[in-house]
Amino acid sequence: MSDEARSHQPEPLSVAASRPGARAQDAIVRMLSEPLEAGLYLVSTPIGNLGDITLRALGVLARADVVYCEDTRHSAKLLQHYSITARMRPFHEHNEDREIERAIGELQAGKRIAIISDAGTPLLSDPGFKLVRAAAQAGVPVVPIPGASALLAALTASGLPTDAFFFAGFLPPKQASRRARLAELSAIPGSLVFYEAPHRAAETLQDMAELLGERQAVVARELTKMHEEIARGSLVELAGTASADMKGEVVIVAGPAQAQAVSDEMLGDRLAGALKVMSLKDAARALADEFGVPKARVYGLGIKSKGR
Tell me: the pLDDT tens digits for 207-223? Predict the structure, then answer.
């Protein structure tokens, strides 16, 4: 066999698979060769590092008939980086109602429409839910393409409880309304996650320290970017060190409210009343759940009171 003939022979599978990124390259080529079904695609994009986009997201954006963007100028940088020449249209709070009618008509005609935000998962603190609702009501497939999300990146890196959390989005910009909203959120069990503009972050942290109490918290700034920073401490500590000229995108995570100390005297008083209507076993379980204390502690207090 000549050298020229050898050069045209396919590489052995083991060799081809060992090339860096070979399987990823093969996957995207195969995906691009397949037709994209009609529907509305909610495509997550990077929150900073362009490498955080998924292969599936690239495949959808490359084959979509239209890509709705929060800011076409901003999104053009992402698409150009990956040589995607999709047709872009703006989609924001000022034109949302007008564009929905056109989008639904095109979707019903069999078009493939993707919607992206400036960064992260679309619809989170961004317009779009009305379009999704209208598409679902019209019987159009709605397909989520998951990926990067600033709130999840901050929450998982925070070191704070993740078993229950509440995403509150952006707080009101005016202090009176912001403090009223924080007062409402203070009773929610679990961690609280907020987006905040950098120029308001210091004021917001001060209000949080006063209204949410001595909670552990995290301020995550510029996530996935060159100047990524994750500051940890109590809300009071973070408020004291926050800069009024903070730069970059900011996510604030506040941990759950700390449990208040419950004295034996307080538990004994509540237990005495509970024992009038239920057994010691049931009362111990109910009060343990209410105050977040061990059931054995409440049960022991009940046994002690009976021995007096």
Answer: 999 999 889 999 999 99
For residue 300, the number of C-alpha atoms closer than 13 Å in the C-beta half-sphere is: 7
Using 50, 70 and 90 to split pLDDT, how confident is the model at 138? very high
User: Which stretches does DSSP call E strand in the chain?
Assistant: 39-43, 66-69, 88-90, 112-116, 142-145, 165-170, 191-196, 216-221, 229-234, 250-254
- Identify the burial level of 113 via C-beta atoms within 10 angstroms of its C-beta, where 0-12 means exposed, 13-18 middle and 19 or more buried: buried
Architecture (CATH level 2) of domain 32-148:
3-Layer(aba) Sandwich (3.40)
CA torsion, ordered 271, 277, 280, 283, to nearest 10 deg: -60
CA distance 278 to 284: 10
Q: Which two tokens stand for residue 1?
A: 């066999």
Sheet containing strand 250-254, edge to edge, reads 165-170, 191-196, 250-254, 216-221, 229-234
Domain 151-254 adopts which CATH fold?
3.30.950
